[in-house]
Amino acid sequence: GVFGGRMTEMATRLSADVVTIDDEWGQPVDPQKLEAALESNPDTKIVGFVHAETSTGALSDASKLAEIAQRFGCLTIVDTVTSLTGSPLYVDDWGLDAVYSGAQKCLSSVAGIAPLTISDRAIEKINQRQTPVSTWFHDIGLIDGYWSESSSRSYHHTAPVNSIFALAESLRLVKQEGLERSWERHRKISQTLLTGLSQLNLEMMVEDASIRLPQLSVVKVPEGIDEAMVRARLLQEYDIEIGPGLGPLAGQVWRIGLMGYSCRSENVERLLGVLKEVLSDLPEVSSSSG
């Protein structure tokens, strides 16, 4: 997916020797392919993957991938930008090492601040580093000293105080609802959306419910439909925005987000109602072969 590709791009820019594992768009990371890649590349140090890939709507098995990585002596870097509070995520139980997320997705907070957690294994690896990190801002060793509550605490940057207060409020609301209830709300309301889309004869990119994201539904655009026109009408006439396809899926799918505060029944009901109206109002497209 797009964000797995960005992970590759970032690692490459940092001069990492990256081995990519390619899967069909709409499919999760294949554990067997990961195991085969690690067997073929025994000097691998880190396994990176996206837990919830929003360009395809697929959810990878983070627990299984981490287990394979640990078996081969690798640390894991995991993108949980979309999965945090929207899908089950057990960082410690699954043995994930460096895990980052985003406040703007299922936490419904302000953009620009990233929750981050790092395991003791990863910290130990960082502390063994012999060369300076290429950027001051991303030096976890320095940041660890800044976060420390010891007497040797050192200044690293000016904290984004307003964003931290906003994130704290979002976390308070998650705690108030309950994490498991948040997961269930996303699952239940997503199912309501899928049922309605099916009644409109729309198909999902990810057919298998066990690997389909509840918080991000990727819908196939029917043949002959101007997908950009549909999105434009939803936005201009009804103030509803759905996302376009990314990468090779551009022009082929719509991406409908149900994340955090926006994951509510009334939003689904309104979207389904106006989407039905917009689609029924489109001119019929006929095709013939000569």
Outline of the structure:
The protein has helices at residues 2-13, 31-40, 62-71, 91-94, 120-127, 140-147, 161-177, 179-199, 227-238, 265-280, and strands spanning 46-50, 52-53, 58-59, 75-79, 98-100, 116-118, 216-220, 243-244, 253-257. With 290 residues, it is an alpha/beta fold. The protein has two domains: 2-101 and 114-159, Type I PLP-dependent aspartate aminotransferase-like (Major domain) (Aspartate Aminotransferase, domain 2); 178-280, Aspartate Aminotransferase, domain 1, CATH 3.90.1150.10.
Instruction: Give the distance, in angstroms, between the N- and C-terminal Cα atoms.
Output: 37 Å
**Rg value:** 21 Å
Number of helices: 10
CATH superfamily of the largest domain: Type I PLP-dependent aspartate aminotransferase-like (Major domain)
Under CATH at level 1, the class of the largest domain stands as Alpha Beta
Category by helix and strand content = alpha/beta
Task: Going across the biggest sheet, name each strand in turn.
Answer: 1-4-5-6
- The CATH topology of the largest domain is Aspartate Aminotransferase, domain 2
Residues in β-strands, percent: 5-15%
- Count the beta strands: 9
CATH level-two architecture of the largest domain: 3-Layer(aba) Sandwich
Overall tally of structural domains = 2
Task: List the helices and strands in order.
Answer: HHEEEHEHEEHHHHEHEEH
Helix % is: 40-55%
* Envelope shape: globular
Low-confidence stretches: 285-290
Mind describing the biggest β-sheet? 4 strands, mixed
Average pLDDT = 93
